[in-house]
C-alpha cells in the first residue's frame, strides 16, 4: 500500500466514529485503534446542531492570532519534531531568516520522519507548535514574512 494512501486512511479514521480498523492484503497488514473517547463527527450530530456548527467561524478565530505572512502547514498527521535529535537545539526559531526549501522541522508518522520544508524565503515570525506536539493535517506550523 502506498505511503500517502496510509496517511489518508489514518486521517479519515481519526475524524470518524470508527474506533478500530484492520486491513490485510497479502503480506501487508495494518491495524489502527483509537485511544480514549473520540470527538463526535458531524455525522453523529443532529441536523439542527450541525447547521449551527457550520455557521461558527472556527478557522477564522484560529487564523486571527496568526500575523500576516505565509503559513507553513502540516503535510500530515503525526508528531512534530523541532530539532534533529532530543539533545540538539531547534532547527529554526522566531526571527531567523530562512531560504526556500530549507528544512524547518520534521513530522514523525508510523516511525518515519518526514521533513517540513519552507515554501518561500523570509523571516520566521511565529513558531506555532512545540517539539513533541501532535499535529493534524493542514495545521499551521510556522508563519514566514517575505
Instruction: Report the average pLDDT across residues.
Output: 77
Task: Tally the helices.
Answer: 3
CATH class of the largest domain: Mainly Beta
- Helix % is 10-25%
Q: How would you spell out the order of helices and strands?
A: HEEHHEEEEEEEE
Instruction: Please identify the structural class as seen in this structure.
Output: alpha+beta
The N- and C-terminal alpha carbons lie at a distance of: 39 Å
Sum up the overall morphology in one term: elongated
> Roughly how many Å is the radius of gyration?
18 Å
Strand proportion:
25-35%
Biggest β-sheet: count, sense, barrel?
A: 4 strands, antiparallel
Please give the number of β-strands.
Answer: 10
Task: Please tell me the CATH architecture of the largest domain by its name.
Answer: Beta Barrel
> Which strand order does the major sheet show?
3-10-8-5
Task: Write structural notes for this entry.
The protein is an alpha+beta fold and 146 residues long. It has two domains: 54 residues, no CATH class; 78 residues, RNA polymerase II/Efflux pump adaptor protein, barrel-sandwich hybrid domain (OB fold (Dihydrolipoamide Acetyltransferase, E2P), Beta Barrel), CATH 2.40.50. Helices cover 19% and strands 34% of the residues. The protein is built from three helices and ten strands. Strand 1 and strand 2 form a beta hairpin. The protein starts with a helix and ends with a strand. The relative contact order is 0.18.
Amino acid at each position: 500500500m502506498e505511503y500517502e494512501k496510509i496517511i489518508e486512511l489514518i486521517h479519515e479514521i481519526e475524524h470518524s466514529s470508527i474506533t478500530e480498523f484492520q486491513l490485510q492484503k497479502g503480506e501487508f497488514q495494518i491495524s489502527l485503534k483509537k485511544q480514549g473517547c473520540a470527538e463526535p463527527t458531524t455525522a453523529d450530530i443532529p441536523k439542527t446542531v450541525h447547521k449551527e456548527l457550520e455557521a461558527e467561524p472556527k478557522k477564522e478565530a484560529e487564523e486571527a492570532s496568526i500575523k500576516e505572512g505565509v503559513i507553513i502547514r502540516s503535510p500530515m498527521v503525526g508528531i512534530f519534531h523541532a530539532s534533529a535529535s532530543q539533545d540538539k537545539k531547534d532547527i529554526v526559531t522566531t526571527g531567523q531568516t530562512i531560504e526556500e526549501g530549507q528544512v524547518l522541522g520534521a513530522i514523525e508518522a508510523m516511525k518515519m520522519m518526514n521533513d517540513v520544508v519552507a515554501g518561500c524565503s523570509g523571516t520566521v515570525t511565529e513558531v506555532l507548535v512545540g517539539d513533541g506536539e501532535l499535529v493534524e493535517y493542514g495545521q499551521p506550523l510556522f508563519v514566514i514574512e517575505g
